[in-house]
């Protein structure tokens, strides 16, 4: 029955990929659709208000500058909101956030990470949750998707430019995220997820004790939280909270919501490449990796804790510590796999209580950061690996590396290599610093190998812009707020700028006609090569630190 539950969710996803991927292709390809008249009027008003009557296609440098400029404005806005939240619309009397916590929170949400060193219902007002947190969930997701579309244009079209960032950004919000979030919000409200402007409700228990229950516009935040692969919870317990995720049905909807856009973008890529097999190769590589780590996490949790088994107190349900019984083992492990694969960060169970190998599975997905990934980001990371695989194959067989009719040359490989190095550096260096300083080790709640994993998970989640955490770590300190904030910022914008530079470099190359000697990238062989390249590079980079953490912990049980 547990396997059947997982299979059903996967089959539903398969049914969503083609229609959603096709819809996104029409949005960014500018083809005539029935919704153009309606959405076009809204967008025209936004362009007039913003002074964007002429929206010329941009070079990669201008595209990157426009992205950073707009995100910079959002950062300033975010600081003003969180510092001044105590001055207005504040019935619960909450104060502004501490400076280091404010820094961490603003950077977290602008980078699509949504790492939370605070508990939403006790730290932020409903107004802050709406005008800052929810708004950033739309803008950060739109930024990632826009970058993916620009990258796709760079490697598939004959144009020397990448499109207009502001137009891509606006279309993503108006035509994609808002309609989907509106529909999902209505569905969640119908399934008993609260949506109200009331900040709390006083209830009297059976013992006669009055209890104040936090409320707010939860459903609307839940919708974009998952569709935008954001992950930040309205409540501290995130999607384990019964108001955020009350039933197995809402659990399935939230899993599909955070999975559907990253998965469907592979189909969109195939449409732009005018060869749908290219899109299916990328999807297949992602899906194979997903199944590998889903199997690891599920089987580890199903086997349970061997120490409890020896004591004779284990259950037939496997490891159920930290899991909600309304979701069961299947609903919990699939959620954990999707949220770390799609770098959403939403959790419906506590990852700190996963078995060592189960926790390693979630860690590995964030370390690879290509198994579907966040909205847009996962696709361009996998395409980066595809270009690397083509280059390596070209070296091995003595052919000029080509990808989609363009040569892969030293300039692209230098940029790709630099991108590959950034991710492990901003994970491993801060992890080492944290383990060497009392400011870092004082936050560890479980010393030993598990404490090592807590620290590693925090920085991996930050670098991958995931946001989930091993919640046993006491991370609301100046050290952790500042270090993770810096890692989140670098993990987001360095890779975006470098990969836009790769796309810009590709636009300057002439198309090469396909010949009998061209190495094909649209078949099963290349899918297998791509999977192996990802796994080998991931293992060479991260296996030593995994041995010191979850693997060592598993061996000691």
TrEMBL record:
Species of origin: Listeria weihenstephanensis
Cited InterPro entries: KdpA
Any GO MF annotation of the entry: P-type potassium transmembrane transporter activity
Family membership: Belongs to the KdpA family.
Protein name: Potassium-transporting ATPase potassium-binding subunit
Subunit: The system is composed of three essential subunits: KdpA, KdpB and KdpC.
Primary role: Part of the high-affinity ATP-driven potassium transport (or Kdp) system, which catalyzes the hydrolysis of ATP coupled with the electrogenic transport of potassium into the cytoplasm. This subunit binds the extracellular potassium ions and delivers the ions to the membrane domain of KdpB through an intramembrane tunnel.
Subcellular location, record wording: Cell membrane
Name of the encoding gene: kdpA
Alphabetically ordered keywords of this record: Cell membrane, Ion transport, Membrane, Potassium, Potassium transport, Transmembrane, Transmembrane helix, Transport
Pfam families for this protein: KdpA
């Amino acid at each position: 029955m547990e396997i059947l539950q997982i299979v059903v969710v996967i089959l539903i996803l398969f049914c969503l990929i083609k229609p959603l991927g096709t819809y996104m292709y029409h949005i960014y390809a500018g083809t005539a659709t029935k919704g153009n008249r309606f959405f076009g009027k809204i967008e025209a008003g936004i362009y007039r208000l913003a002074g964007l009557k002429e929206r010329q296609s941009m070079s990669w440098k201008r595209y990157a500058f426009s992205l950073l400029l707009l995100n910079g404005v959002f950062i300033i806005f975010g600081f003003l909101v969180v510092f001044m939240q105590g001055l207005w619309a504040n019935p619960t009397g909450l104060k502004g956030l501490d400076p280091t916590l404010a820094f961490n929170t603003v950077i977290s949400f602008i980078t699509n990470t949504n790492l939370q060193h605070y508990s939403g219902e006790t730290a932020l007002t409903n107004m802050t949750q709406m005008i800052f947190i929810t708004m950033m969930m739309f803008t950060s997701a739109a930024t990632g998707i826009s970058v993916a579309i620009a990258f796709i244009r760079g490697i598939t079209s004959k144009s020397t430019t990448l499109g207009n960032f502001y137009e891509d950004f606006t279309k993503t919000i108006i035509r994609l995220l808002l309609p989907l979030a509106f529909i999902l919000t209505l569905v969640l409200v119908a399934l008993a997820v609260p949506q109200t402007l009331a900040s709390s409700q006083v209830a009297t228990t059976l013992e006669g004790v009055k209890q104040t229950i936090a409320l707010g516009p939860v459903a609307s935040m839940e919708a974009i939280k998952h569709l935008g692969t954001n992950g930040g919870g309205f409540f501290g317990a995130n999607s384990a909270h019964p108001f955020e995720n009350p039933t197995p049905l809402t659990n399935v909807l939230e899993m599909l919501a955070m999975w559907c856009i990253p998965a469907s973008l592979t189909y969109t890529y195939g449409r732009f490449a005018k060869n749908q097999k290219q899109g299916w190769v990328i999807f297949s590589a992602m899906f194979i990796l997903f199944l590998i780590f889903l199997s690891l996490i599920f089987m580890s949790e199903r086997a349970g804790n061997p120490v409890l088994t020896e004591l004779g107190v284990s259950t037939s349900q496997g490891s159920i510590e930290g899991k909600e019984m309304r979701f069961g083992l299947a609903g919990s492990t699939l959620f954990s796999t999707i949220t770390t694969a799609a770098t959403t960060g939403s959790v419906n169970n506590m990852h700190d209580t996963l078995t060592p190998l189960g926790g390693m599975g979630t860690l590995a997905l964030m370390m690879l950061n290509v198994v579907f990934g966040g909205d847009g980001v996962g696709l361009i990371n996998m395409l980066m690996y595809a270009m690397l695989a083509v280059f390596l194959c070209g070296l091995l067989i003595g052919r000029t590396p080509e990808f989609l009719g363009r040569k892969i040359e030293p300039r692209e490989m230098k940029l790709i290599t630099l991108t590959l190095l950034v991710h492990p550096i901003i994970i491993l260096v801060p992890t080492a610093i944290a383990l060497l300083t009392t400011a870092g080790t004082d936050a560890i709640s479980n010393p030993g190998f598990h404490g090592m994993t807590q620290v590693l998970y925090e920085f991996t989640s930050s670098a991958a812009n995931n946001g989930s955490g091993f919640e046993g770590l006491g991370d609301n300190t100046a050290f952790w707020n500042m270090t993770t904030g810096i890692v989140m910022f670098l993990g987001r914008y360095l890779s975006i700028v470098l990969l836009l530079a790769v796309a810009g470099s590709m636009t300057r190359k002439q198309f090469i006609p396909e010949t009998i000697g061209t190495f094909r990238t649209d078949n099963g062989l290349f899918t297998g090569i791509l999977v192996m390249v990802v796994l080998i590079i991931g293992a060479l980079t991260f296996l030593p630190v995994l041995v010191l953490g979850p693997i060592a912990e598993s061996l000691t049980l």
